[in-house]
Amino acid sequence: MFGIRVPHPWQQETPVTPEEIFLNRRRFLTQLGSAGAGASFSIFGFGGREAAPSVERDLSGIPLNPAFSDPERPLTEEIVAARHNNFYEFGSGKRIWRGAQAVPTDPWTVEITGLVRQPQKLGLEDLFGFPLEERIYRFRCVEAWAMVVPWLGFPMRLLLEQVDPLPEAKFVRFTSFYDRDIMYGPIWPPNLPWPYTEGLRIEEMANPLAFFALGIYGKPLPKQHGAPIRMVLPWKYGFKGGKSIVKIEFLAEQPATFWNTLAPDEYGFEANVDPTVPHPRWSQAQETLIGFGSRSHWQTVPTLPYNGYGEYVAHLYG
Ligand SMILES: Nc1nc2c(c(=O)[nH]1)N[C@H]1C(S)=C(S)[C@@H](COP(=O)(O)O)O[C@H]1N2
Ligand SMILES: [Mo]
């Protein structure tokens, strides 16, 4: 649940936008259990439906990949996606977007190391130099909320080709940016295994669905979505998609990852979306479409195996 929070000093740094005032007011009303409760969350009224992009890049005119143009569900509203985030470095609530503005995204370097013939360091120019495309993907968090968003980026397999992994490379570890000075988030439990890391089998990274996003809704990623580069793996639970990636390592053995280290029974390494396997604490049979329906009762739909992407990936797990 959202709480009414006293702003921290860092929250003063970003000017408050009209839609934010509106959202806070609306939330306040909802919490009073009065006018807001039954109304549609999708009506914002102020026209401010955009989120600030992180880096200056013109991403207009990037082609939409026709294979991923029809998710058979309506798009999530941009501002809804940009105000409902998981980025535990900034806290365990969903409203971390202001805190995330502290990530220093420009300049940026992604270091690619380990079992590859061509280790390299990629800056923003290199990343934005990949042939970019737009893909509309469904997205399913392990917490049973879901969205549909248009990402801009490039397939991970293009990077694989460029770095030329050695035959011994079987796994890949992705490390997120971490700086304790700006990332104050959860103090409990202590000794969380920062930085946030995630991992894939190399065949999973080579799958055509596996994607690096640099943008969303036609613009560079807002920082809360994991600027300047984040992983997007639409057949897996959302936590597999690390944000603000700074390091990619090719390994012989399966790496330890953040959530899998913390709670292996709840967050497997593979973590494919599967409605038949409940999380130990809740069902995975259904999912809630953020922003649709009323604020108090977001619309719920059935969850599909592999989040509906079985035709692309089921063979990896046969
Ligand atoms: N570095 C980092 N990456 C992360 C997370 C995180 O806490 N830290 N949360 C994950 C989870 S649980 C989800 S559901 C998605 C949320 O992405 P979004 O906020 O862009 O919707 O980011 C994933 N990537
Ligand atoms: Mo998640």
From TrEMBL:
Keywords: Oxidoreductase. It comes from the Bacteria. Transmembrane segments: none annotated. One of its GO terms (molecular function) is oxidoreductase activity. Its EC number is 1.8.5.-. SUPFAM superfamilies: Oxidoreductase molybdopterin-binding domain (SSF56524). Pfam families: Oxidored_molyb (PF00174). Gene3D superfamilies: Oxidoreductase, molybdopterin-binding domain. This is Protein-methionine-sulfoxide reductase catalytic subunit MsrP. It comes from Thermostichus vulcanus str. 'Rupite'. The gene is msrP.
